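A protein record pairs a chain with a discrete description of its three-dimensional fold. The following entry can be read in just this way.
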Amino acid sequence: MYRHFFKRVFDFIIGLCAFPFVLILIVIFGPIIWFQDKGPIFYAGKRLGLNGKSFGMIKFRSMKVNAPDIRLEDGSTYNGDDDPRVTKIGKFLRKTSIDEIPQFINVLIGDMSFIGPRPDPLDWLDKYKPEEKIFLTVRPGITGYNQAYYRNSANSQEKIDHDVYYAKNVSFWMDVKIIFKTIKTVLFRENLYHDETKREFGSAFPLEEVPDNYFQQLEQRYIHHSYLTTGRGALMLVGQSIDTDNKHIYIPAYSCESMVKPFKDCGWKVNFYELNDDLTISDSFVKEMVKNKEKNFSILTMNYFGVAGTKEKVNVIKAQRKDVFVIEDFTHCLFDLDGIYNENVDYYVASIRKSLGVTDGAIVLTNLVLQEVPDTVESSFVTERLKALKEKADYAYEKKETQKEDFRQVLANAEHNIDEHIVVEKMSERSAKVIDNQCVNSERGGVIYRRRTNLKHLYELIKDIDGISFPFHEDTPLDNAYFMLPILVNKRDEVQKTFAQQGLYCQLLWPLSDEARITCKVAVKMEREMLAIPVDQRYDFDDIEDIGHIIRSVMK
């Protein structure tokens, strides 16, 4: 109903209200345009309208009379900020988008809509694929989805993809969002010019941040700490250290085998517990634990992706069960233990190598008993990981396929070794030096700032894409979320493969055991549909924009 009736009614009302304002602008800018080069005030280029019919799109003229039609290699219009064809007043009109205002006349007479795909030249009709012509089933607009979110920063194919997306999903609320986003884009002059590289070369160096001793500060908060090669080894150390005769632990159903095996190898009995849709601990499990007649059992918790806080549920259990040992895996919140800290957690455990460019690394923190870790010879796992990461570093500069293949093979061998043989051994000296030189808490350049900014940026880019959902509520604060951005998609494996073909490699967390699948339907859904998108400190604004473009192009 909105698409075929109310949208046109709203357009007529908007056009009628805007007409006096258009007349005022004609009085102001018309003489200036004419006096600059004695040419016409308006330009009415022929464009494709509803169902592919031709119409004259009215604009304030911003180019010199008889300016040549300059195109980029992909066929799109040249939009450089140094375009010699644009008049002085034309530059102002374009930057402020005032040149588009006369199109309200087109809206009033029914050639255009206020919101819709921007109309293309007539000779573009034959360039569209049959499935792309769907965007011609809606009236072209003064502004639209592509202009609001990308303006001139998207290339021609991306513009078509965005227009097709709008035509398939047009609704009243979508148009409202586009209106507000257009206002923001114009006011802040975002994405004004199309630039394929979106990179700057030869400018000043960015500020190098000073190490802030983040990990040393963590150590000082606890009586005992230990650095180990892997998260598996860290969990095994905890399993060996807990002072209890009851070797029984409850682990969230959404856990990989590497979180389960360390306890089983120490002789622990493992049971899985259920999670809510947002990956928080279920109320039914909390009630079960409070009533549990067992003594001195243990619970493993995890704040998944920094959006599934555990503090409230853990406090309820510990308030009535002081004998229970709580272990929290804070791998997903490694750089914000202050933000998630809970005095009722007995052991904090995290993998470090998942978040930094180190060969190995994990940490255990506790005020309870922690066994000493003996000195050992550097393991083959560390040696192989070092070789693999060196190959990857070389590939980043030389791009030789043999380097990529060698990296993958050596890394796979290293991971296979720790899957087969979990050992408790100290972190390598090389990794210790790397983590000592990290800047985590800097207001602008630190790891937390970069990750948090990247995640929020990417979330805004992809949150409205059809076919993508998230394992957290829309109003969930993302301030502690910066491990990766989890998304849920149908045909997950197929989507992951297509992402990889375009250079975006997404992790899967994790394959489940049969017992876990029976215990928790949410864990099954995550196993089947979840992809973790990288947002870490390696990437900058332009990288996140590129990641967003890849996701949008695949999910279109």
